[in-house]
Design a protein that fits this description.
This protein is mainly β. It has a domain at 10-84 and 119-133 and 146-157: Lipocalin (Beta Barrel). It contains no helices and ten strands. A ten-stranded antiparallel β-sheet has the order 6-5-4-3-2-1-10-9-8-7, with no helix packed on it. Strand 9 (128-139) and strand 10 form a beta hairpin. The two termini are 22 Å apart.
Length: 158
């Protein structure tokens, strides 16, 4: 019998904080710089485990979209996948040392972006997970931004 995670089949609060810093231009910009763009998303969802994979399902309201969309985070080992379902589905894969190409949909059209992950760490606490990602985004081979994403998943009860 497989042991289940502390959060298995539980309602959770998800907090996603993203910092985007400009790429190129010579000097390095710190993550604390005012030149960085910061975003935060808070949502409630469901967490569960299946085999060796962890899943977190929730709804989010992307800026510029009229309707919310369904999102899923799935992580297994050193790979995180983010799927968005709705009018314009999208998929992003984060895997350290690898570059993944996927379409990113906006209200203004779709972009083919390359995501290259430098860091992905998962820390498990009592009734919580903390995920940290650092990745770069390129379009047509040219750097667009460097990004840091911190994801907190905390149990709020069954």
């Amino acid at each position: 019998m497989q042991e289940r995670g502390k959060l298995d089949n539980q309602k959770v609060q998800i907090i996603v904080q993203t910092i985007n810093r400009p790429s190129g231009g010579g000097e390095a910009v710190s993550w604390e710089s005012a030149r960085c763009h910061r975003m935060e998303l808070k949502a409630e969802g469901e967490y569960y485990e299946k085999g060796d994979a962890h899943y977190c399902l929730y709804e989010e309201q992307p800026e510029g979209w009229e309707e919310p969309c369904k999102a899923m985070l799935k992580w297994k080992g050193t790979v995180l996948e983010r799927l968005v379902r709705g009018k314009t589905p999208s998929r992003m894969v984060f895997e350290p040392g690898k570059c993944h190409r996927d379409f990113y949909h906006t209200p203004y059209g779709s972009l083919l972006l390359e995501t290259e992950t430098g860091r992905f760490e998962v820390t498990e606490g009592q009734d919580a997970f903390f995920l940290v990602l650092e990745y770069g985004i390129k379009q047509d081979g040219l750097p667009v931004s460097e990004n840091r994403m911190e994801i907190r998943i905390m149990g709020i009860g069954k």
